[in-house]
Structures are given as C-alpha cells and as structure tokens.
Design brief:
The complex is a heterodimer of chains A (310) and B (315).
Chain A: E1 27-34, E2 44-51, E3 56-60, H1 67-75, E4 82-87, H2 92-97, E5 101-104, H3 118-127, H4 138-150, H5 166-179, E6 184-188, H6 196-213, E7 216-221, H7 224-230, E8 233-238, E9 240-245, H8 252-259, H9 263-267
Parallel strand pairs in A: 3-7, 3-8, 5-6, 6-7
Antiparallel strand pairs in A: 1-2, 1-4, 8-9
Chain B: H1 2-8, H2 13-39, H3 43-62, H4 75-103, H5 117-145, H6 158-163, H7 171-190, H8 192-200, H9 202-207, H10 212-234, H11 245-253, H12 257-282, H13 286-314
Helix pairs in contact in B: 1-2, 2-7, 2-10, 2-11, 2-12, 3-4, 3-5, 3-10, 4-10, 7-10, 11-12, 11-13, 12-13
The chains are: A alpha/beta (310), B mainly alpha (315).
Chain lengths: 310, 315
C-alpha cells in the first residue's frame, strides 16, 4: 500500500489513502476563531475538526454561516485569530506551496468569455508555478490529459471555456485542480446553478474521483442534495461547527433546529435521497442538547449512535 | 498627400517619423496589455494612473523640467531633458499605480467581507484621478504664466500634455517607446502562466499558490510604463484608450488566446497608424485622432461579430 504523494496521486490506487495510525490528519482544525475587521460577531468561533485522509466531508450551512471563511482559512488566504490549522501536518501556506490542496471555485468566479480552451485552463493547474522558459514536462502533460479524461472532458477539450454549460465548466475546474496532483480536493458550492440531473452527474463524478484517486474531499455547500449524495460525513456550520454526522443524520427537524432556516428551501422542495456509502448511521444534535435516545451532547463533535437493540 | 510628404521629405521626416515608430511601439505593447485590462476590468484603474501622469507632468514643470531645451542645445542635452521629464512622470505614475493597487481588494489580501473595500477602492481611485488632474493643471498653468528668461523655450501647453502632439515626439521618445514595449512584452511573456491564472480566476490562483498581489502590481506598473510612453503621442487624457480598445476589439473577434492577441495587435496598429494619418492630413491633435480611429476599428469588429451571429442564427 502506498500513500499518495504530491507528485503522483493521479496514479494512486483507490485504497492508497487509508489512514495510518501515525499519519497526520488530512485536515486538523483546532479551536479556530475568526472575526472580520470592524465586525463584533465572529464569523467562526471555536471550530474543531479532524479529517482523516480519504474521507469525503460536506460542510453544510446557510449563507453567512462561515463556510467560505472556513474555506479561506484552510487555504491560508485568511489567518485565524486563535487556534491553528494543519493540512497533512503542514500549515495552510505550506500546503498551498506544495500543491497539497486542489481548490475548485464557484463557477461564477470564472471570468466568462476568457479566451482559453479547456485544455489550456487545465494546464494552468499543472504549470502555473513552472519556469517561464521551460515547456510542459511529459509528466505534467500526462497529468493534464489524465485529469481531462477523469472528468470526461475529452470531447470538449479544445472548446473555449466560455462556451461550456455550467456542469461542463464545473468538470473543467475539477480537472484543473486534479492536474496539480493534490492530496485534498476543496470544492466551494460546486452545484450552484446546476440542474438536478447535473447535480446527480456531479455526485457520480466525485464518487469516481474518490474511488480512482482516493483523495480527501471537502465540499462546502448549502445544498442538502450535494451533501447527501457525495459525502461520507457532514458537518453543519453556522458560526460554530454544530455537529458531525453521516448524511443519514440530516433530518429536516435537525436542519430546522440548527439553521433556523426554511427547511423546504434548503431541500429545494424535492425529495432528498440520502446515501450512506459507508453504511454509517447517526444523528447530530445541537450543542448541549439531549437527543431522542436520552444522551446529552456537550461537545460540538458528539456523534450520537442509536441505542443497540438487546 | 501630406502623410507621404511628411514621412519622405528630408526636412520633415525627422520630425514626423519618430511618432510613427513610437506609435508602432505603443500598438505592440498595448495589444497584450489591453486584453488583460479588459478581462480584469482595470480600465478605471488605468484611467486613474494616466491622470496621475498629469500630476507628474505638473511637478516636473514646477521643478523646471519641461522636456524641452533652448535652441542650440546639444543632442545629449535634449535627450537628458526628455529623459528627466519622463522619469519624473514615470515615478509619479508608478507610485500612483502601486497606491491604487494596494487600495483595491485582492484574493491574497484576506479580509474583505463587510468592509465594502471594493467600493472604497473605487472612490479612492476617483479621488486620485481628480486630484492629480487638478494638481497637474494648476502647476502647468502656474509655470506657463511665469516670466521666462531670454532664450528659454516655452514649455508644452496644457493641450499638448492632455492630447499629445506629433511634433512633440522625438527620437529619444521613440527609442524609449521601443525599449518600454520590449520590457512590457517580455515581462508579460515571462509571467504568462501566473498572469493568465490570475486573470481567469483570482481566488483560485491565490489558492493554488500564485502570488496574486505581486502579479497585480506587476501589471499595474507595466500599465504605468505604457501610459508614460503613450502620453507623448496621445496625451494623458486618452492614453487609456490604447490600453482598452485593442483588447476589446480582439475579444470581440476571437475566443482563442492566439486569435485575440493577433486581432488586438492588428487593431492597435490599424488604429494608431490610421489616427496618425488622420492627424497628419487634417492637422489635428494625434490623441483624439488615434482614439477615434480605434473606436472605428472597434465598431467594425462589433458589426462583424453581430453579422456573424445573425448569419449563424439564420443558417
């Protein structure tokens, strides 16, 4: 068994990232708080989160819940006022420098009408730090082509990025992230503006990437559907990290409690198919509250297992 | 035809040819810069920097450095005066570009939420723009009113600084233009990978480890260099047009990077040369003539693009 490295994950076997006891966590967030300048209410408060390599985590929360702030902290684009973050044992800045994180932005952040082909965009992921004199190395070219194949973008690889549909653009952005050979994929609201069929295809793609490359995947979204179909674990965030749970724990009641939110709106008025790839069951509960099973949860990470039947 | 005479007559050619060489240099550096300026919506920042050039010109005037020398001065003295004037304006422009760059929010610079930083930067650029113009205008006017010593040449007037002058372009200016064009094009080629990543998607570029602040500053400084070169020919008021219209034309006509570059260069060359011919023939300021020619080229590009779309829909 091999552990994926920053240079070879596209070639890694599916089970390559099984966590070793002595291996650092893929993501380790300890007591992190952050407030934007000029604001009194912290955007994030006392966040604790440990993510083992190879896990698929969804971070679910309402708008203004701190999802993007957390993401920027993990990327090292913001510095926490308290606490610390480690990505595979490195600081976020080091992780960025070593291309350990593959970031997939919201589709809207891409400049529409940019005169680059899909292949050129994906190539940027592999060569942005390369010397100006050096042409593309064979290994980089190989990584680019493999990433294009992995996201099924071969048929439109020479088309301009501005001429693609939302779903296609999303796939290209994932390919660009994969071309940098990261160990963790970080996706920001990946299904915004994509129809339900596209969201399903996206979940399949994420599953395929996970199976083929064994990457750690963190998806930040306010879409329950995205969480339910593509993640092993879901963390609910609204300033504080309220819970970790398997997607099965995302009941409308829980969401209503956690987010004081229009649950119908969150679910998009559609049925939610809850998939639990690991078969893990569980419920999450508001900090300090008792659950249906009579347990009281005091820790934000408390994970309630249903009582075993005698 | 005046243009032919101006460029071939041994007595007139030394006066008019430098403007053609400078114009070609400007078109060469404007082509790639304009694409980035349009894609990154930096036109307003460019306008701020170009107006700062007017403030720089005012300071140079106040220091007695107007770029012109008395009749009978040696070529070396003339070149020195030109370079000193250009240097002061350039320093002012680069300082403004860096100041404006630091005011604008960037992905790498962290906190932006709830701070309204984009709106504040917009206001700050507007303040720099109008303050530089007012400051420059006052200084240039004060210097123009001063009593000159016998034999001391009159400094170029406000109109020349604002709209440029064909006869105001010397071989020194043309040489500076060619050198700056090579520096601009070379730097853009050198930094093409991080620049393209940054221009496509700033947050992702920062997340991938691109030094986005440095990339932005380099582009703004290149912009300042280009503006100082362009201002001799087209004036500070219209210099930005040369850093916007060729790129906008290229982006209208192609969606491939190579195509956009080629069309942008072609639009720049046709616009600058067309504007110079118009200026020579009608005895007009070159700045407005070049800008109108560039606008004409852009209009044709829009027409071609619209016609192609209609034909595709009909077909």
């Amino acid at each position: 068994m091999t552990t994926p490295t920053a240079t070879s994950p596209l070639a890694s076997p599916p089970d390559a990232v099984a966590a070793r006891a002595d291996a650092p966590a893929a993501l380790d967030i300890r007591a992190v708080s952050y407030s934007y300048p000029g604001t009194t209410r912290p955007a994030l408060e006392a966040i604790n989160l440990r993510l083992e390599p190879g896990t698929r985590l969804g971070i679910l929360g309402p708008n203004g819940g701190g999802k993007t702030t957390l993401l920027r902290l993990v990327l090292g684009l913001l510095k926490p006022q308290t606490g610390e973050i480690r990505v595979f044992g490195r600081t976020p800045r080091e992780a960025r420098r070593e291309s350990l994180i593959g970031y997939v932005p919201q589709r809207a952040e891409i400049e529409a009408g940019f005169p680059l082909s899909v292949r050129q965009v994906v190539t940027l992921g592999a060569t942005h730090a390369a010397s100006a004199w050096r042409p593309l190395k064979p290994a980089q070219r190989d990584a680019v082509e493999k990433a294009i194949d992995l996201v099924d973008a071969r048929e439109f690889a020479d088309r301009p990025i501005g001429k693609l549909s939302g779903g296609q653009t999303q796939r290209v952005l994932i390919a660009r992230a994969l071309a940098a050979s990261p160990r963790m994929l970080l996706l920001d609201e990946p299904t915004v503006g994509i129809d339900i069929a596209g969201q399903r295809r996206f979940a399949e793609l994420l599953g395929r990437i996970h199976t083929n490359l064994g990457l750690t995947v963190v998806v930040v979204s306010h879409s329950v559907r995205t969480m339910a179909t593509g993640c092993d674990m879901v963390a609910c965030l609204r300033g504080r990290l309220h819970s970790h749970t398997a997607p099965a724990g995302l009941t409308p009641q829980l969401l209503a409690e956690l987010f004081s939110h229009d649950v119908e709106g969150l679910f998009g008025g559609a049925d939610v198919v809850v998939a639990t790839p690991t078969g893990q069951q569980g419920h999450a509960h508001v900090h300090g509250e008792a659950c249906d099973h009579g347990h009281e949860h005091h820790n934000a990470h408390d994970h309630c297992q249903p009582p075993t039947t005698p | 035809m005046k243009t032919w005479d101006y460029l071939t007559d041994p007595a007139l050619a030394p006066i008019y040819r430098p403007s053609v060489v400078a114009g070609l240099a400007v078109a060469l550096m404007g082509a790639p810069l304009a694409i980035l300026v349009v894609l990154k919506r930096l036109a307003f920042i460019g306008q701020g920097v170009s107006h700062a050039a007017f403030g720089g010109a005012g300071i140079a005037y106040a220091l007695g450095i107007t770029g012109v020398v008395a009749a009978g001065a040696t070529a070396g003295e003339a070149a020195g005066a030109r370079l000193a004037f250009t240097g002061i304006v350039l320093a002012f422009c680069i300082a403004s570009a860096i100041g404006i760059g630091r005011m604008t929010p960037g992905a790498e610079r962290g906190p932006s939420r709830a701070s309204g930083s984009a709106a504040r930067a917009d206001t700050a650029i507007a303040v720099v723009l109008v303050a530089s113009m007012a400051f420059g205008f006052l200084l240039v006017n004060v210097v123009a009113r001063r009593t000159r010593a016998p034999g001391q040449p009159a400094p170029p007037g406000v109109e020349t600084v604002l709209f440029g002058s064909v006869v105001g372009v010397s071989w020194v200016d043309a040489a500076v233009g060619v050198a700056v064009a090579l520096v601009v094009v070379g730097t853009l080629w050198w930094m093409r990978r991080p620049l393209l990543f940054w221009a496509l998607d700033e947050t992702s570029a920062a997340a991938f480890g691109v030094r986005t602040e440095r990339v932005k500053m380099v582009l703004l400084v290149l912009n300042a260099l280009a503006i100082v070169t362009i201002m001799r020919l087209a004036g500070v008021l219209l210099a930005t047009a040369l850093l916007v219209l060729p790129g906008a034309t290229g982006l209208r006509l192609s969606d491939r990077l190579s195509g956009v570059m080629a069309w942008s260069l072609a639009a720049g060359v046709v616009g600058v040369m067309g504007g110079l011919v118009l200026s020579f023939e009608a005895d007009l300021s070159p700045g407005p003539s070049i800008v109108l020619a560039l606008v004409g080229v852009y209009g044709v590009a829009c027409g071609v693009r619209g016609g192609t779309r209609r034909a595709m829909r009909a077909g």
